[in-house]
Amino acid sequence: MDFLRKLGIEGTNSGTSTGQEFLGSGAKEKIASYTPIDNTQIADVTVTTREEYEQVIGTAQEAFKEWRMIPAPKRGDIVRQIGDKLREHKEYLGRLVTYEMGKIYQEGLGEVQEMIDICDFAVGQSRMLYGKTMPSERPRHRMYEQWHPLGLTGIISAFNFPVAVYSWNAMIAAVAGNVMIWKGSEKTPLCGIAVQNIIAKVLKQNNLPEGIFNLVTGGREVGEWMSSDERIPLISATGSIRMGREVARTVAGRLGKTILELGGNNAIIVSRDTDLEMAARAIAFGAVGTCGQRCTSTRRLIIHEEIFDTLKERLVEIYRDIPIGNPLDNDTLVGPMIDQQAVDNMQQALDEVQKEGGELVYGGQVLDKNQLAEGHYVRPAIVTAQNDWDIVQEETFAPILYLIQYTDLDEAITLHNDVRQGLSSSMFTLNLREAETFLSARGSDCGIANINVGTSGAEIGGAFGGEKETGGGRESGSDAWKAYMRRQTNTINWSDELPLAQGIEFNVD
């Protein structure tokens, strides 16, 4: 396909890169990339060997010595050029995201636009790595703080956003003066190679050294190398709660730093005082967008009892009209799931919730070969449920929407918060008091809380992340840049005396 050629994708590709150079792998082990559209193989990618990993780390360490001394605004200009290069390749990269991951083409383009947006944000941030000046209690002394880069930043990203989440971390870390080691998902390895190819053009044009943006490819073992590597002071990991626990335990054991963005069990509270049509549209996108495979996907819908049946019927009407099919087709709104295991997990969850007593209101069927090509297509499901059921307490990475009733606002907030995850949340209401209560300290306990906006579709200007088992990390906007840097307090004595703090006298003849 033309977009693969434009992105430098071939039949067999090296999955290890130090920025401009892809390392020739002697390993026999390869990852086969399949498109979930029709389950055909796209290409092979070689798995990073231990020897190649050591070469990447060594190259990155050398690059850091030079990159950290380039003024931050100059580093920002490199990121600006990366953003411009992404603009040139937006259509091709967006198409690859769709082809390899399965989200619809509009979402694939949107993901690349997120990369462009975070580049723009990082350019501005490169001139705003502010420290503070504090008054000293000692005369003729100046005290201030400044921020320095940490060094090597390890980035482990997931299949559902194969390029955007990497850029949230990498572009901020880059302007902060760090160099990157990126391991993307083994389910979407070609997206990582394509991004490396795009960035390499900018690095080459600016005569920058190898090792600033690095790529390693593989499964759990490669991630474990990174997590246990004392040469990587920061690991930013996106994925399941199980994976996050392992990363946190390993990195904490060596007193390293982590940014964890893990599972979400996101809910929308729908008040009786709401614009039902606006709410229904937001719910549909949040629940079925990316075929329910976003960490911010809407999974629980907590509906006031007076409007429960009305909203349920409206959602069924919307779901019946949602076009399911090839995500590269412009008319499609829901593409395939990533693989057969994801389909099986969805079916198991639906079986369990019905055994608990839930009613399958709509959907849930696996679409067979007579209806679509041999991909992993399902019909998004709507199910009535109770919040305390075990399966509802878990995050099933699938387009399943649980409908739950409530009577009053206190009950709704209790139901909303009574899960282990705390990523994204929303309330649809036209009642100012309800809205402010939901956003107050007694309201949502999530890292993201919205009013009359769905759970999915965060902008890059705000720090992204959640609480509880979501991990507590923050990426992207606001002051998230501080996580990629170390704080240093400095004191300068410009007097001809040596006064000590706290008035201590220590006279030495």
From TrEMBL:
Active site: E261
Record's protein name: aldehyde dehydrogenase (NAD(+))
InterPro entries: Ald_DH/histidinol_DH, Ald_DH_C, Ald_DH_CS_GLU, Ald_DH_N, Aldehyde_DH_dom, ALDH7A1-like
Complex and partners: Homotetramer.
One Pfam family here: Aldedh
High-level lineage: Bacteria, Pseudomonadati, Balneolota, Balneolia, Balneolales
Domain annotation Aldehyde dehydrogenase: ranges: 27-489
CDD domains: ALDH_F7_AASADH
Signal peptide: none
Source domain of life: Bacteria
Keywords linked to the UniProt accession: NAD, Oxidoreductase
GO molecular function: aldehyde dehydrogenase (NAD+) activity
EC number: 1.2.1.3
